[in-house]
Design the sequence.
DNA sequence: CTGAAAGCGCTTACAG
DNA sequence: CTGAAAGCGCTTACAG
C-alpha cells in the first residue's frame, strides 16, 4: 500500500521479462500442457516477480465468455429502505432489553444455502458467481452484461426485465412454478412432500381432523403444498377441503395471529398443517401461550426446514427443502443450457425430506 | 429460447439501426445528459428492438475498472468435501426421525448478513459483488482479476495469496484483528462488548462468581473477548483470571461437552460468560439436561447474536455484532481506498449491542 | 451535441 | 512448442 501500485503489469510486461510472446504467457495460464516446462518456469518467475494478475475483463472479452454466473435474489427484507450512516465507535456500547414479541428473524438460511450451493457448483466448473438483490432496471445492465447466464429466485425479477435478459443469456428460475418456456426451472417437490406429511399424521398418529394453514393465495408454492395436503387426505379416504382453513403471509407474526384467532374461535383441529415453518412457529407460539399442549392437544407441522424449526420447543416436524441442492441443480442446468442452447426447456424437481420431530409426537 | 439467439447485438448494431455513432450509443448509457432527447429516443428504441445488453467485459476493459467487488468467505462447512450427484425425483419422499442430538446448525446468519451488507452498499455505488469460497490458489486468478478490490473475512485467504492480491488491488479484512499495514480492517468492538456484558452481570444481578468459556486459543476474536471479560471484572474490583476456565472450538457440540464437564466436576460458577453463541447454546443444552436451571442456578451468556440465540429456551442474553454494517463498512472503506490509494491504512471498529434476555435473568 | 479513432489486455486460429 | 496478428466490444479524450 505504501508503494504507488505503479502501473499494473500486463501480459506484455510478463512476456518481455520472460523473453517470450504474449501468446505463450496466455498459454501458460490457459493451456499449460501446451508449453514446455522450461518456458513455463520462466513465465512463472516473471509472473511472481511482477505480481501479475490476468485481467478478467480482457480475458472475458477475448474469450467471448464472462466466466461468471449471475444470482439474483429478492429484496425480502426491504433492503432499499435507506441504510443510515455507518457509525464507528470506541468503547461505547448500547444495552437493551430484547423481549421476544418484537422479534422477527431477519431471514432464514434459505437464501444463504442456495447461494452456497450455487457457488460450490459454479466454482467446480471454474465459474464465478456475481450476486444481486433485485432492485430495478439497473440489474439488467449491471448484472446481465457481465455474466454468461443468470439464476434467479422465483418472482424476484419483473417479467418484462427477465424477458429482455433471457433474450441475451439463458435464465434458470429456482422455486415457484414454471414461468413459461423461456426459462429453465428448478423446483422442489412441494406436492409429494406435503402429501407425505399429511399421510404421516393420519397413519402414524391416527388423526383424521386436519386443517391447512396456508400462505398468500398467489404463491405457487403454497398452492402446490395445499394440493399435496388434499391429495394426502384423499388417499386416506378423508374428504379434502377446497380452501385452506386460514391464510397468512408466511411470516411468524402472521402465524401468531392465526393461532390466536383459532383459539378464540374455540375451534382448534387436532392437527394444523402449515404451509411453511414461519407460519407454524407463529401458530406454535400462540397455542402455547394459551396453555395448549403440542403435540398432546394439537399437532403442528411446517415446511422448509429452516434453522429455527430445529431449535424451537417443541422442535418442529417439517419438510426440508434441499436448499443447497437447489443452487447446485440450477447451475448444472445453466451449464447444460450453455453447452446446448437448443435443448428443450428443462424442469428439475428435487426430492424433499420429511423430518419427524416433536411437534407431531414422533419424538419425546 | 426457440430462436437461435443469433449473434448478440453490439454497440455497432445499435448505432447502425439508430443512425448514430457508437460513441453516442455509449453516451446514452453512461452520460445520458450529454445526449439530446431526440437521439436518445432513437437509440433507446434500437436497444429495445435488438435486445441489446452492453458487454460488461468490454466496458470494464475500456473503462479500466471492473465495476465489481470481490467477497471471499471461509469454507466453514467443509464445502469441498465432494458434493454427490444431484438427484431429481418424481414423488418419492424420504421420511426420517430427526433427534436433536445429531443437529449441528448448518451455519448462522453471520455470513449471509455480511454478504447482504456488502451487496447493499456496493450496489448503492453501482458496483457488483462477486463471491467466492476460499479454496486455493484459483481464487487468485478467477476472482482477483475481475474485481476492483476485495473484501475477505479474517483468516480466510492464506497470507501468501492475500499478499499477492493486495499488490494488485486493495484488500479489506473483516473481523479478527489487523493483519498488518497492507490491508484495511473493519472489526467489531469485542473488548467493549464483553466488558459491558461482564459488568452488567455483576451490577444488575449481583453476581461475583463469573467464569469465561472461551474458543480456540489462536482466535483473535476470542482473545479480545476474554480481554473484555477481564477488564469488566477488574472494573468491578474482582480479580480476573489469567486464562479462560475452559476452551472449546466455537461449536455447539463442543459447548455441550464443556457444559457436561463442568457439571461432572461439580464446579459450576454462578455465571458462565461464553465467547460465542454456539458455545453458550451448547453449554445451555448440557446444563438443562442435568436439571440445572438457567438463569436461576446459572447465568449463561453468549456473543454474536445469531438467530438461534433468540429462539432458544431460555432465550440467550448476548452481544450482537452489527453483521450487516460490517459488510457495508468494508465496502465504504474499499471505495475510499480506491479513490485515494495513498491514504494511511484504515481501521474501523463498529459498535456492538448487549441484548438482555432470559438467560441472565433480565426477562421472565 | 456528435463522430472518428485509438486503445483497453487478453485469446485464438493460423503458420511455422 | 512458439509467435505474429487479428479481433473481442466497449470508453474516452480530442476535434468539430
Sequence:
Amino acid at each position: 500500500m505504501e508503494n504507488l501500485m505503479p502501473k499494473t503489469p500486463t501480459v506484455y510486461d510478463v512476456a518481455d521479462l520472460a523473453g517470450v510472446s504474449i501468446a505463450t504467457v496466455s498459454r501458460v495460464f490457459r493451456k499449460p500442457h501446451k508449453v514446455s516446462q522450461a518456458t513455463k518456469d520462466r513465465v512463472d518467475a516473471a509472473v511472481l516477480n511482477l505480481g501479475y494478475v490476468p485481467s478478467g475483463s480482457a480475458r472475458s472479452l477475448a474469450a467471448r465468455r464472462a466466466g461468471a454466473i449471475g444470482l439474483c435474489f429478492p429484496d425480502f427484507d426491504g433492503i432499499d429502505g435507506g441504510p443510515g450512516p455507518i457509525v464507528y465507535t470506541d468503547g461505547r456500547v448500547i444495552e437493551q432489553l430484547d423481549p421476544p414479541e418484537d422479534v422477527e428473524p431477519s431471514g432464514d438460511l434459505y437464501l444463504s444455502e442456495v447461494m452456497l450451493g450455487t457457488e460450490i457448483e459454479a466454482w467446480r466448473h471454474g465459474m464465478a458467481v456475481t450476486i444481486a438483490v433485485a432492485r430495478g432496471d439497473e440489474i439488467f445492465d449491471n448484472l446481465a452484461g457481465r455474466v454468461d447466464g443468470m439464476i434467479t429466485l422465483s418472482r424476484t425479477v419483473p417479467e418484462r426485465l427477465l424477458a429482455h435478459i433471457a433474450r441475451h443469456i439463458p435464465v434458470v428460475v429456482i422455486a415457484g412454478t414454471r414461468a413459461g418456456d423461456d426459462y429453465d426451472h428448478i423446483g422442489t417437490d412441494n406436492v409429494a412432500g406435503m402429501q407425505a406429511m399429511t399421510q404421516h399424521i393420519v397413519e402414524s398418529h391416527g388423526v383424521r381432523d386436519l386443517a391447512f394453514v396456508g400462505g398468500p393465495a398467489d404463491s405457487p408454492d403454497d398452492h402446490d403444498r395445499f394440493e399435496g395436503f388434499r391429495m394426502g387426505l384423499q388417499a386416506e379416504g378423508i374428504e379434502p377441503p377446497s380452501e385452506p382453513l386460514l391464510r397468512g403471509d408466511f411470516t411468524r407474526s402472521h402465524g401468531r395471529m392465526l393461532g390466536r384467532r383459532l383459539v378464540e374461535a374455540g375451534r382448534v383441529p387436532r392437527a394444523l398443517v402449515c404451509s411453511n415453518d414461519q407460519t407454524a412457529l407463529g401458530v406454535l407460539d400462540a397455542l402455547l401461550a394459551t396453555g395448549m399442549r403440542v403435540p398432546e392437544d394439537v399437532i403442528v407441522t411446517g415446511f422448509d426446514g429452516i434453522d429455527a424449526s430445529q431449535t424451537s420447543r417443541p422442535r418442529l416436524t417439517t419438510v426440508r427443502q434441499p436448499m443447497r441442492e437447489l443452487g447446485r441443480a440450477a447451475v448444472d442446468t445453466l451449464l447444460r443450457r450453455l453447452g446446448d442452447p437448443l435443448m428443450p426447456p428443462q424442469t428439475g424437481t428435487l426430492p424433499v425430506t420429511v423430518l419427524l420431530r416433536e411437534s407431531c409426537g414422533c419424538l419425546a
